[in-house]
Structures are given as structure tokens and as C-alpha cells.
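Comment thread on ticket #2218

A.B. wrote:
> Attaching the input chain for the structure job we discussed in standup.
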Amino acid sequence: MARRGRIGEFELIARYFAPLARAFEGAGNLQSDNAFLAADPRHDLVVKTDTVVAGVHFLADESPQRVAAKALRVCLSDLAAGGATPFVYQLSLALPEHWTETWLAGFARGLAADQRRYGILLCGGDTVVTPGPLTVTITAFGRVARGKGIGRGGATAGDDLWVSGTVGDGALGLLTAQGRLPDLTTRQRGFLEDRYRLPQPRTALGHRLVGIATATADVSDGLLADAGHIADASRLAVTIERDDVPLSAGGRAAVKADPRLWANVLGGGDDYELVVAVPSRKRSALLAAASAAGIAVTRIGSFARGSGVTVTVAGRAVAAPRKGYVHF
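C.D. wrote:
> Ran it. Output below, let me know if you need it in another format.
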């Protein structure tokens, strides 16, 4: 009963924490997941902190290597949305009382593998023991050309909405891991589950969006929610054509078998794709950047004057499913 009166995550931030950051321009009024700090005459630092908790953000029995990878990669996804290339990170690790050195060695191997993969290095942190669940907090730092970082608030009316990769795999992958999509093929289930357990941050694309995108977000809370974050920060409305949203083979099979799963696809989150506002005149530049990164991008909608998120099917507005993951 007590939860009914609680405010949501973004209202909480706006009410209590945004005033504390108001005097610092690089915080962007806390409307973006990243902060931008001057690093040197040529670069800004893009800074992002994320926390993942066992049983909330990853399965409680997940391997230590994959826990490490997910914790780091969700931060790298935000750096990509900011147009940054990875630089260094700090790690805060709250280990449960029953931790073992074998587990910790596997966790360190997972971090080492991703450091090599993404060109990032550990530069500090903290470790504690907690009576609660395993909790991993990473603060990642990226670099972007001075003044060129991409936030959420720069979209303009008439901009197109694009998304990288495929959408809905993370949410459907969680259902698969829970044994709730038994009718998919073994290959489809394996693909979707991997997409949930092991995000693929679009670091090869993010820095190429500088000078092309007017606003970006990573799809962590859900496509509708994160496109909505851009619209809200830009004081615009956004329309998404549902049937233009790119789906994997497993995603297509899932919604064909049960159309109710569109709610999970559009609102489930954990995809870690990039949703991007781009002026129509820069379409060719976007496609060239995506090709250079080896990542597909798809136009799924557009921004206009107004507010809110509208979902259409064959051009007609339909009731939107849940709009995204709610942290509180």
C-alpha cells in the first residue's frame, strides 16, 4: 500500500536532485544519463554511473564473467549515446557475505576481457561486504570533442527518429531465461537470452553520430520510454510507427505467436540500442556512419511540436502498451 504514494524515478530526480546540480552546466539539469566535464582544450569527459543488483538487473545465478560484462556494458551504452569513446572507469563492488575468491577471479576475468574489447581501463574504486545482494556500481568516463557531446534535449520538430539494431530482444530474452517462451526454436531462444544476459553497446556507432544526431538515448528503460525522454527533454512530441520497429527473427516469431508481447518489445527495455533524432537532410550521413560501424539503423518515427509519445499502426494511433521499466 505504501508504494502507491511514491513518486517515480524522474520526478524524484527533478524534485530533489536536479536543484543540487543546477549551477553546473555540464549536468544538463540531470535530464540526460550523462554529465559533460571539460577535460582538456580539445576534449570533454562524458561521465556515467550505473548500478546493477543481483535478482533485479541480472539473474541471481548469472556467471561472474557475465555479471562483470553487463555491469560495464550498460555504462558503455550510455557513453555511446553521448557520442563518446570509452576512456577509464571506476568500480564499486558490494559483495554478499558468502562471496568466494573463485567467483571474484571469474568476475575480474570478465572485466579484463571487456577492457580489451572496448579499449577501457580500470582507474580506481571501492570494495565492501554487504548483508544484501551482490551490487556492482560502475562510473565510466568517455571522451568527446569539446562541446560536441550529444544529450537528449537537442531534437527539433521535423527530425526523424531512428534506432540501431533490433528492439525487444532484451525483454523477450528475460522471458526466455524464465522459461516463458517455450514455443520458439532453440536457436531463437538462445539468441534472445544472450541479448538479455550480454548487452552489445553500440560504441562503434556512438562517436560517429557527433555532428549528425541532434539528440540520443540508449534503449535501457524501453523504446517508448527512452524515445519519450528525448521528446520530453526537447519539449516535443514523438510518433513511432510500430510496424517499422526492427525485430530479430526471435522477436518476430514471438509477437506473431502472441501479439500481446508487443508490450514487452516496446516497453521492456534492456536492449542497449541507440535511439537517435536526426534531421532528414542528414539521412545519408547517418547511413554512412552506421555502415562504417557495421550496425544497421532503421527509421521508426518523427518528432513534432507538442508533447508525449504516440504509437501508430498503419498510420493510425493505437493504445500504447507500458512505456518502460519503472525503477521505483
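A.B. wrote:
> Thanks. Noting for the ticket: The mean pLDDT is 91.
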